[in-house]
Structures are given as structure tokens and as C-alpha cells.
Amino acid sequence: MSALRPTILFPLFAKVTTLPGIGPRLVKLVEKVAGENIVNVLWHLPFGIVDRRFAPKVGDAPPGKIATLTVEVLAHAPPPPTRTNRGGRAPYRITCGDETGKITLVFFHAHGDYLEKTLPVGEKSVISGKVELFDGRRQMTHPDAIVPLHQIDDVKRVEPVYPLTEGLSPKVLDKAVRAALTKVPVLPEWQDAAYLQRQKWPTWHDAIALAHAPKDEDDLSPLHPARSRLAFDELLSNQLALALVRLKARVRRGRSLSGNGKLRAKVKAALPYALTGAQARSLEEIFADMASESRMLRLLQGDVGSGKTVVALLSMLAAVESGVQAALMAPTEILAQQHFETLKPLCDAAGVRVEVLTGRLKGAARAPIVEDVAAGRVHIVIGTHALFQKDVEFKDLGFAVIDEQHRFGVHQRLELADKGSGTDVLVMTATPIPRTLTLTAYGDMDVSRLDEKPPGRMPVATRLVNVERLDEMVTSVVRAVKNGAKVYWVCPLVEESELIDLAAAEERFAHLKTVLGDKVALIHGKMKAAEKDAAMDSFSSPDGAKVLVATTVIEVGVDVPDATVMIIEHAERFGLAQLHQLRGRVGRGGKSGSCVLLYTGPLTQTAKERLETLRDTEDGFVIAEKDLQLRGGGEVLGTRQSGMPEFKLADLTVHGELLAAARDDAKLIIARDANLETPRGEALRTLLYLFEQDDAVRTLRSG
Ligand code: ADP
Ligand code: MG
Fold it and tell me: Which of 627, 628, 633 minimizes the C-alpha distance to 580?
């Protein structure tokens, strides 16, 4: 991947296939569970232990306990030959013993040849496994280990237990880990010596070895010195990488955009409401950034419904007043379209030209707009991320707002600043991210918070309902529609089985149609743009559809103020943050809303707690914190599409303090040695490569 990676790390980035003694079929499984490089195997830490040090005489081995026994093989008893199916066959038995007693080894579906070879009669062997009592006699079914006497030390130890995958035996994975450990080089120390000493942490080399050789339960704790050290290494690499990328973006001069306030005044006058205190405060922070000479990179964090859109608009107008263009990037076409429809009348009121560019706009309709953007005749452009990245050229893009919804990687996000010349960037996130996670995703980015909802927001009563009561739900939806309600009905789309899920949504649509006729519309990702538009238009208009059956969160990421009911099927399959976002779609237009979380039982304890959290609070921050606690940081936002970093060694639910320390350390490093040129700096480069932050190191080279 990287031509720059230091040679000292090469052994760690060799493929798992190069490890000795693991065949191609098993390599696939090791790769599946850990990753394709040796370093990934090292990051695959044990979660349990089996103590095989207990080595009694056979006669003293207590049933129910794991024991390692040294025995002589006395007799083999293969199953009698039968013609019935294999499943019905008796097991293969081998009697062993020592001077104190006997034990029978039991093997189902055994290969006799193999057993005769590994356990020849008259030989001494070491077996390890759980001792059982059957008909008053000791037996051991499928021993975990069988080795000749001279290998007893390989077995008689505390064995780490690793996360596995189907078909992968503990033995094979253990072998892979042991082999990987032999590849671990001694690396230069990148941590501050005094800090290491204070924490009483081992060197990286020792920490890796210790983490894979737990002696008791305490050694498995994430707070154990070896594990803490490894977690801190990972967090420091994350914080340092962010700080470096950030530094680069900052150093390049921005431009001062201040404007005369005229356009903003016109739009404010056209707004049907006054700004909230939080909106006004955030705007002041944004305007101050824009006016300064250095490049702006700010995060606007606001719960769903907190009114980010108008903040984005007023910020963009400040840029337009300063004579530059502004862009708003939305994560999907529907949202881009929606933003356009919201902002167009306001821009018209100020005499500002706004256009939307989406993938569906083609040929003759598209060309003149693209041309006008390039010529600077369009002041504000709204579009999807993908579109901006492709072919749109601005005359002078001075300000970009990214309505990001966590679909971007950290570096992409920060490097977007490279697009224009000195373009100021405002990132808006809809999900309230706990402070710890903001740090890992953005580093010490400036944050403005919309922590106050616009007035007139009504509470949304939330209920959990078992899907067995679906018929009742349908009846109450029919009643609500008769009373004038607008209803979202969301069916989840799970990637693995998109077609099945689509079928489920279509079936629900058909079902609701039988009772509500053409008052129901369907929208999903596989529909053509025009069909989607038609469905949305119908649901938004006063005499159109009253129920919108939708497959994904994204399709519903829209603003239909008079929608009041949200029904979410298979709520247990959604992330908490997603559910919270969905629910935020109702209760907007001054009418109180209701939300039904339809679940399919039985619920796990965690699933139950998650849904109950949602039922009990509407505070996005409380929900996000709870989510973090229940699922761990990596998953809190549905990491896979989120662009949030996934940690392999750090666990933010317990390493929050280490994260803060890593941030402070990164700051200090940047202040003292921004080019990483001191001996510690050199070592830190190795750390960055170790955690595959190659992009961050590259910022150093290009200076
Ligand atoms: P989000 O932060 O989820 O993007 P929006 O910008 O879509 O929120 O705003 C949600 C709703 O609140 C919109 O209908 C918007 O018109 C309305 N709104 C925004 N700011 C205010 C305000 N200060 N007072 C009243 N309503 C507001
Ligand atoms: Mg929004």
C-alpha cells in the first residue's frame, strides 16, 4: 500500500499467508477473523483464558474441570462396523490410564487410522480437556490437545481464548498468533519516557507479548498495563494523525470573508421565525472564523430538528456577500433536492441565485447551469458529495458546507479543504456525537453546538409494540389518517438481503393499500429518480398520500412538517442514532407526534434496553451516550458507513481518559516538533505507519 513504510515494519505488514504451517483454507479463516496482515493477527487479542496448568493424576482428576493428564494408552475400541448412517454410529473409544486410574477418550466420527497413529497403544501421551463422569467412569470427549510427552510444556499453560469464526479451531488461530509474535520487531520507543514510567507501562514489544499471554482474568482487562499501553498507542496515532492533517489545512492561508450583512438581513427578514439563541451564537462563531485570515474548519453539531439548514444558509450568504461562491453538499440526491426547495424562496428574497446539481440532471438541462457555476453567475450550489468531486468547476469557491451524516472518512473530510483555494469549510453533523467520539473523528476541531431546539417542537410519544400486534397498528393508522394525520412507515433495509427487504416493504405497501387505497405511497432506493420525486411530492402535498412506506433512513431524511406519526418496523435492527433521527422527522409542524417501534421478539437484553432508552428520552445526547455505553464506541453510529474510526485496541467506553491524554500529547508534539524530526518524532512516524495512518505522514513530506 505504501512505498514509504519503514522497512522495520515490513515483517508486520507481510500477509498472513506467509506464516508457516497454515494452509490456504485456514488462512482464509484467519484473515476473516483478524485481517490479512500479520499485524492484524497481533491486534486480535484474547478475550478469555483456559488454564491447563492443572495436571493431576488420573485418579485425582475431578469431573467438570479442565485437566492436563499424562497417560499411557492401554487399548483402542473402534466402533463396530455398521451399515446405518454415520450419525447413528457409536464413538471410537480409547482407554488410557496411569497407576491411579483409567480414563476413556471418546471420539465421534473419528478416523481410526489417525487415532492409531497419534495414540499408539503402549505409548505415553499428554491429553488435555474437560474430565467428565459417565456411568461412574472418567471420560474425556474430544480432548482439546493430544501431544507426545516431550511437548507437555506447549499444553500445560494458561491458554488464551480468541474470538473465532466458524471452521476455525482455537488451535489453528493460536498457532497463527504464536507465529505472528515471532515476527514482532523491537521498535524505537515513541512514547514519552516519563509518561511511560508514571503509568508503569511496558515497552510496545513486551506489551504485545503480554497481551497475548494472559495468566489470569485480570490480564484480560482493558485497564491492564499492557492493554492500556496498546490502546494508548492507537489513540495517540489517531490524535496525531488528525492534528497533522489539520495543521496542514490550517497553515495554508485562508481568506477573510466578512461581507456587509445586507443579504443576511434580507433573508432574516423573510424568515417566518426568529433565530434561536443557539443558532445566533453558532452563527457568530462561524462568522468570526470566516472573517479571520486562517482557514476555517468547524463542526456544527445539532440534534435532528435543531435548525442547521438556516445556519448553513446564513453562513453561505456571508460568503456570497464577500464576493465568493458557496456550496452545500448533501449526502443524497433527495436531501440535496429538499435543501434546494427549502432555500430557493429565501435566496429569491435576497436576489441570490441558487441552483441544484444532482445526478439526475442531464444534458441540455445541466450544461447551462454548470456553465453558469463556472462563470460565477450562480452564487450558491447545492449538490451531492459525489457530484462536487466529479466535474463541477467553480469560478471562486470560498465556502463549503458539508451536510455530512457521517458518510465520509476523516481524511477525505479534512482534505476537502483542498478543493478551492483557501475554501472555508463547515461540517454539519446531524447525529449528536458524544464528546469522546468527536475527538476521535475530528481531533480538536472547533465545534459549534445547536443545543436548543426551535420553539414549537412538540414531544413525540414513543411506544414499543410487538409486531404480533400488527393488525391493531394498521387499524390505528387507518383511524389516524381519517383524522388527517400523515404517517411514515419505515421498513429496514439490511444490506445482506436487500431484495428480501425490498420485498418486505413492497408487501407492507400492498397490505396497507388494501385498506387505504391510493392514500399510500412507496419510496425506496431502487426506484427511479422520477418515481421517488413523485412519491415525495405526493406525501408533501396536502391532498396527496397520507402514508409513506419507505425502506431506508435516507429516503426519510426529509422535512415534511405536518407528518405526525412514525412507525418503524423491525426497530431492533436499527442503530439507536438512526432511530432517533427517524423519530425526529415527526412532531415538527407544531403538532405533537407519535412514534411506534415495532419489534420482532424475543429481544435480547441489550436490544430491550436500547429501545427503552429511546422510549424514555428525546435528548439526542443522552441517547448517544447510552448507545456508546451499550454498544461500544466503534459501533455507536453504525460505523461501517459512518467514517468514524474503528479502534482495534482502544475501547472508548473505558479508555476515555487515555483519549484525552492522547489529544494533549498530540498537541504538545505538534507544538514542539511539528515535522516529527526529533528522535521521538522519528519514532512517532513509525507509530503512524504501524496504525496505517500513512496519509498523515504524507502531509509531512509535502510540507
Ligand atoms: P436539522 O438540524 O435537522 O437539519 P432543519 O434545519 O431541517 O433541522 O430544521 C427543522 C425545522 O425547524 C424546519 O422546518 C425549520 O424551518 C424549522 N426551524 C429552524 N430554525 C427555526 C427557528 N429558529 N424557529 C422556528 N423554527 C425553526
Ligand atoms: Mg438537516
Answer: 627
Alpha carbon nearest to ligand 1 atom 21, residue: 454
Give yes or no for residue 405 CB within 6 A of ligand 1: no
Compute, in angstroms, the gap from residue 497 CA to the centroid of ligand 2.
Answer: 29
Residues 539 and 521: beta-carbon distance below 8 Å:
yes
Domain covering 460-617 in this structure, CATH number: 3.40.50.300
Alpha carbon of 268 to ligand 1 centroid (Å):
14
Q: Verify whether ligand 1 is closer than 6 Å to residue 610 (CB atom).
A: no
Q: 108, 101, 107, 110: which is closest to 137 by C-alpha? A: 101
Nearest CA to ligand 1 atom 5: 307
Q: Which residues pair with 595 in a beta bridge?
A: 462, 566
Please state the atom number of ligand 1 nearest to the C-alpha of residue 306.
2
Distance from Cα 311 to the centre of ligand 1, integer Å: 9
Q: Based on C-alpha coordinates, what's the Rg of the chain?
A: 31
Ligand 1 pocket, residue 52 CB under 6 Å: no
Please identify which residue in the block is written with the cell numbers 491486534.
43
Mean pLDDT of each 10-residue bin along the chain, 703 residues long: 78 94 89 93 95 95 95 93 64 95 93 92 95 93 93 92 90 93 96 95 97 94 96 95 80 80 96 95 95 86 87 97 93 84 94 90 85 95 76 87 63 53 81 67 77 83 94 93 92 63 82 92 83 88 91 64 90 82 81 91 87 90 76 44 67 85 93 94 96 85 52
C-alpha distance from residue 322 to each of 261, 355, 507 (Å): 9, 19, 53
Q: What homologous superfamily does CATH list for 262-450?
A: P-loop containing nucleotide triphosphate hydrolases (3.40.50.300)
- Substitution site in 556, 559, 588 for ligand 1 pocket (most atoms within 8 Å of beta carbon): 559
Using DSSP, state whether 597 is helix, strand or coil: strand
Of all protein residues, whose CA lies closest to atom 15 belonging to ligand 1?
307
Nearest ligand atom owner, CA of 583: 1
Q: Where in the chain is the domain with CATH 2.40.50.140?
A: 53-156
Ligand lying nearest the CA atom of residue 454 = 1
Measured from the CB, is residue 588 less than 6 Å from ligand 1? yes
How far does the centroid of ligand 2 lie from the alpha carbon of residue 562, in Å? Answer: 16
CA distance 645 to 633: 9
Q: Which residue has the cell 482495534?
A: 648
Which ligand is nearest the CA of 334, by number? 2
Give which of 378, 393, 257 is closest to 325, Cα–Cα: 378
For the CA of 304, the nearest ligand: 1
Whole-model pTM over 0.70: no
Q: Is the distance from the beta carbon of residue 310 to the nearest atom of ligand 1 less than 6 Å?
A: yes
Helical segments of 182-276, H only: 193-199, 204-211, 225-251, 262-270
The Cα diameter of the chain in Å comes to 100
Tally of CA atoms within 13 A in the half-sphere of 127 that contains its CB:
30
Q: Beta strands of 65-163 (E only): which ranges? A: 66-77, 92-98, 101-107, 124-130, 132-134, 137-141, 145-148, 158-161
The alpha carbon of 307 and the centre of ligand 2 are apart by a number of angstroms equal to: 7
Q: How far apart are the first and last CA of the chain?
A: 21
Which atom in ligand 1 lies closest to the alpha carbon of residue 309?
A: 6
**What CATH code is assigned to 53-156?**
2.40.50.140
For CATH 3.40.50.300, the residue range(s) in the chain are 262-450, 460-617
Ligand 1 close to Cβ of residue 279 (< 6 A)? yes
